Amino acid sequence: MTTALAPHRDRQGAARARQAVLASRDRFWQPSDLQLSPSTVHHLLGDLEDRDELRRIRRGLYWRGTKTPLGMAPPSPERLVEALTRGAGVGPAGLSAANALRLSTQVPRRAQIAVPDRAPSDAGVVRFVSRAARTGRAAARLTPTEVAMLEVLDDWPALVEVELAQATRQLTELLRSGIVRAERLADAATTEPGQARARLRALLTAAGRSDLADRVPAADRRTESAALATLAFV
Hints:
Elements lengths: L1 H22 L3 E3 L8 H13 L4 E4 L2 E4 L2 E2 L2 E2 L4 H8 L6 E2 L1 H7 L10 E5 L10 E5 L5 H4 L4 H11 L1 H4 L4 H14 L4 H7 L5 H13 L3 H4 L7 H8 L6
Parallel strand pairs: 7-8
Antiparallel strand pairs: 1-3, 2-3, 4-5, 6-7
Helix pairs in contact: 1-2, 4-6, 6-10, 10-12
Pfam families: DUF6088
Protein name: Transcriptional regulator, AbiEi antitoxin, Type IV TA system
InterPro entries: DUF6088
């Protein structure tokens, strides 16, 4: 008797799960969200994808957004990052970081995101880069804007498009304004590369926070000289 009824109950569960997915909007779905057998979940999600009711992001992750004539609209980069990363210390890298800080007008084809851990595989319009050695970012619970600042300070000559004096002034003002937390940046800097540390020390000093600059480990003289040559204080 129990064996005969099991398929019927499974069909009912699948129908309820289908209704729940179709009634949702702007959310991710994973197999674990559905209380069904693995084979039933696999069939259900695959069928909804085939019908353009779900968009497959990667194995085990689907998106239910807005339907368009071209199919299901993808999630925003911000929602993708939120779904695929956990914890603090995650933020823009490369040109995405420079653009976020208004130091460049270039917008990369794929958003670049730095993760203070092993990077997830790329997904959609997001490319992840690992910063596993820079553990201070997570420990200091940096915001995305603070991560962007450290990323730019590490690769300053390649990323800054505006005049160097303007870029230096903008970041100094960010430190003064409190939009980025100078104390947290000083704490996180202990695991940053030498050039980033040297530039951060100089900016903290210019922002009137020599006390925090002294907490950032100094780079060797050669690295510091090369890093400071690309800043322009007026």
